[in-house]
Amino acid sequence: MTYVFDPLVPRPIDQPTEVPLGAPLSAEQLVALDEAKIFVGPADPADRPEWRARLRQWRADAHERHSYHGRAYDRPEAAWAAGCHTVAQVWLWDELLYSFEEHRFTPERFLADAHQRFGGLDAVVLWHAYPVIGLDDRNQWDFYRDVPGLRELVETFHSAGVRVFVDYNPWDVGTRRGEDDAAELSAVLADFGADGVFLDTLKKADPALVEQLERGRPGVVLEGESKLPVERIEDHSASWAQFFADSPVPGVLRSHWYERRHMQHHVRRWHRDHTEELQSAWLNGVGVMVWEVVFGVWVGWSQRDAATVRRMVTVQRAAGDLLRDGEWTPLAPLTPEAEAAGVYASRWELGDWTLWTVVNRGDSDYLGPVVDGPVIDLFADGRVPARGISALLRVSEGAAEPSWLSRVATLPHDPDARFPHRLATRVVREPTLGRPEDDAVVVPAGPYVLTVRYRGRETGMYQGAPYVDEWKPLPPRLHDARTLQRDGSLASPVAVAAAEVTNGQFAEFLAAAGYQPVEPHRFLAHWADGLVEDEPVTFVDLDDARAYCAWRGGRLPTEDEWQLAGETGGLRRGTPAVWNWTESEHSDGRTRFVMLKGGSDYRAEGSEWYVEGGRHAPDYSVKLLLPGLGLARGATVGFRCAWDVTR
């Protein structure tokens, strides 16, 4: 296949913007610079004073053209955003945040890990619906409101000094409808006491939405996913710098230069080397999005990058006044030796203190002088580490040193840039001893090879990331039809039930076995409207299905066994058709998932981000991330049993 773009190379839209030099900027040039993501840093140090003057000219002109007043940043309830340097995007059911064994949230474990590796977090985005939404008619608001204990989870984060964003999916138009999005989102903010809204897939919110959210939650912080238009910096306190490519000589982030209180978070979700975005954040006095599990895919940060974050945020929190209110000189003058080694710095001056935030673009440690005159090496490295950062402080003669110096000096650089791989392992179940149903489809023992069809989603499939070091996966590399090959061997024949378990059969099981789930939330919720005996039982999760099959002397079929039986043509589908659980539970220690088979009659229309609905052939699989606390139970997933056939 021929692609119209190289996914490993930044697209033109990702590239930084040159600032014309040689003359004052024209009106047309000033307007054109509004479209920048990053202003290119000049390679020649002699050009930098004029470059800084042109940046100041653009800012003053843009403020006047857009009648900028900055009142949104004067809201006391939103002041925290200006110091929100680290945000983690976390799936509610990430195994650091939720224990499937204990059936409870574990924020203490999540926060301890973040503190140890990243120096702690300033905020979290609690991701909830995608990529499981669309499996049934639950809308994005249901995936928040139906979570037991979510309000308490938010309160625990608040007690730890961590702010909470909820996620808004404007593309959710095909699930069940409630009130309009503005009313629903306002209610979610109020219900859970959240501090901000992440605007999924959006650069900005509609002004009417901003107004309604502010009325309901004064000081709400809105953060879009991409380049924020200059005129909307006015009412959006934060924005992602997602897939922003920097220049070889580090540049200046346009939005933060326009308004120093506007917080940006660098993020490249599929990259394994975060050096460039971290260095840009350090030089610009902004933050990063720490995102280690992208919709079920492990993209963990190296020890080097985590240590860099830890060093950055400790200084940024301690010296916040300098970074927000001090005189900022990007690409500040350095010694010729430092410049030649690929070392760059921003200078921040306020009162008796001058801070240099320093980066080393090179692959070797720099041991020479960075600036002229005496300075305090805040990290006590005596060097600027290769592809790392440093911080220098000068205190005016006779002035007091900062009280936080000792805390910063205990944060060493870690050179280990290896990717911390994880493997998803299958949860293995014991063989069964029961007698199969008479019409079960028997799959013979021995080796097999299968072709599995699936849709390329951000979830990936069994192992690894679907995109590595790619800038922004686009069609035809996203949501495209794909295949993979699976092979294995059955030690003995396996009999797979021809039909799915019905409501009536499950009711017999409950009466006979007295089964009660450990977590009862949503269990058999559809029976409240009356039991239709011959329809497939739904609103059961993996454990419920396993319990029934064990009572019948069987187990769930694996996804391969289900496909092998289905390809004989012997499996029947109930009415309505529902997806089938399979014995395919995997975990890499952060995400649990299963493979669903069969498809369903339900289909959510209107967005490619939904789980694909409709009936599917036996060779088709969907990877489903497992929610906890009963949310895996839904109207479109049932099951059938399987038995190991003894000779």
From TrEMBL:
It comes from the Bacteria. Residues 486-570 form the Sulfatase-modifying factor enzyme-like domain. This is SUMF1/EgtB/PvdO family nonheme iron enzyme. It comes from Amycolatopsis halotolerans. The lineage of its organism: Bacteria, Bacillati, Actinomycetota, Actinomycetes, Pseudonocardiales.
